């Protein structure tokens, strides 16, 4: 779950393992990746890394030698590089991190690979199982991201307090903390820990919490702004950058009332100060923190005070992100504020998956018919025999019904009277017919009969 501290630790990791190592050849991209090709190839080059908020930059520097510098080239353009550096900017997404392994033990989801000039060869790779991460060759730091909360503290603080009139600060403070335009490097677990330490409800209007804070640095803040040098680790990401939606509005009165209840002492660091110092605490954990290789998070878990800690509450914010907190959520909490687990249970019951419901119903019916004591086959055979017998009986029943209907019709009094009056039928000649029937079929007499 890489946030600002984890990406900085990733840059430290690259600088440590790649220090003094020479890379060679083209940069290779996996076939399944949709990120752009890195059109860089050189017989000898080095790699260094720097971080800024939630971004990491790898710098590929051609190594100066007798002929290597002239042979460096960009594969796509087909022209000489002339010794120019290439900067590749990485965003880790939800599961990105760097690995340095042998070629034989290359990770499965290594989507960008840099090969060393050694035998056996080693590989620095960008691993991303979910493929939400990205890279941009010859890019720059994203302009829509603010200054780094850890190593550009003064600029970051001024950037926030000089834009409090922005509509983004009409949102709850827990959602604004994920806005990378102002809090570049803060993620889900950091916002939970920061708000918990100040006892600030997560769903209080951000402007109400931040107004009144000063832009200048205190002496204590200046000391804590010194760059921290520590050991490195690799990271994974749990959260992506959140674009602020402008949907929620609330009154200033309710927010101010909530802030007064939890107003901290003047000696306690303010919110902007903790957004700087809390990530530095994670960096100090170094390899004892969130390390996906060793998967030993005991130190990191013991450091957490709120995020995924027993006894804490959790609900989803207006962007669908889970917020961990203690006590009252605040006046701007979503109306249907429920814990993620409870919400998932309701969704399974009312997901309108009719196919699934039919399957469940059918399974229930079969379980009701099935006998116990293992007599499944016997019952099945009896059911088939009954079905065949019914199919044979249906035509016979229908024929019997037709026959009985005819017999009933023949036995009626009117039908018997007509049969007795008509007498036995026999064939008659034309002469007999004309004599016996002087009338036409319409009931009128012939001309001869009329004259008589």
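Q: What amino acid sequence fits the structure above?
A:
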């Amino acid at each position: 779950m890489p946030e600002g501290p984890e990406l900085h630790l990733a840059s430290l990791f690259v600088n440590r393992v790649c220090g003094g190592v020479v890379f060679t050849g083209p940069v290779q991209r996996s076939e399944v990746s949709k990120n752009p090709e890195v059109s860089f190839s050189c017989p000898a080059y080095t790699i260094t890394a720097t971080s800024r908020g939630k971004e990491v930059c790898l710098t590929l520097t051609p190594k100066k030698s007798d002929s290597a510098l002239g042979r460096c080239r960009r594969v796509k353009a087909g022209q000489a590089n002339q010794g120019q550096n290439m900067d590749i900017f990485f965003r880790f997404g939800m599961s990105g991190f760097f690995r340095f392994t042998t070629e034989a033990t290359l990770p499965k989801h290594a989507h960008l690979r840099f090969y060393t000039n050694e035998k056996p060869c080693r590989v620095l790779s960008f691993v991303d199982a979910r493929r939400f991460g990205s890279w941009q060759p010859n890019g720059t730091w994203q302009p829509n991201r603010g200054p780094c909360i850890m190593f550009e503290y003064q600029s970051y603080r001024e950037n926030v307090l000089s834009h409090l009139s922005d509509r983004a600060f009409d949102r709850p403070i827990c959602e604004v903390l994920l806005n990378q335009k102002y809090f570049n490097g803060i993620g889900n677990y950091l916002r939970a820990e920061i708000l918990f330490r100040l006892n600030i409800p997560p769903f209080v209007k951000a402007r109400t919490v931040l107004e009144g804070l000063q832009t200048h640095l205190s002496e204590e803040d200046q000391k804590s702004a010194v760059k921290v040098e520590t050991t490195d680790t690799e990271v994974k990401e749990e959260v992506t950058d959140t674009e602020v939606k402008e949907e929620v509005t609330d009154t200033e009165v309710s927010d101010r009332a909530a802030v007064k209840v939890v107003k901290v002492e003047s000696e306690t660091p303010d919110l902007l100060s903790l957004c700087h110092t809390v990530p530095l605490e994670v960096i100090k954990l170094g390899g004892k923190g969130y390390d996906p290789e060793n998967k030993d998070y005991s130190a990191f878990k013991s450091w957490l005070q709120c995020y995924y800690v027993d006894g804490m509450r959790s609900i989803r914010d207006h962007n669908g992100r889970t917020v961990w907190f203690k006590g009252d959520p605040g006046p701007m909490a979503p109306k249907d504020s429920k814990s993620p687990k409870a919400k998932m249970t309701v969704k399974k019951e009312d997901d309108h998956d009719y196919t699934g419901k039919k399957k469940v119903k059918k399974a229930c019916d079969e379980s009701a018919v099935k006998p116990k004591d293992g007599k499944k086959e016997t019952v099945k055979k009896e059911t088939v025999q009954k079905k065949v017998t019914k199919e044979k009986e249906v035509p016979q029943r229908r024929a019997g019904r037709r026959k009985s209907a005819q017999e009933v019709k023949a036995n009626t009094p009117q039908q018997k009277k007509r049969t007795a009056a008509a007498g036995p039928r026999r064939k008659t000649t034309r002469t007999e017919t004309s004599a016996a029937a002087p009338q036409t079929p319409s009931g009128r007499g012939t001309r001869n009969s009329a004259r008589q």
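Q: And what stands out in the fold?
A: DSSP finds 16 helices and 13 strands in the chain.
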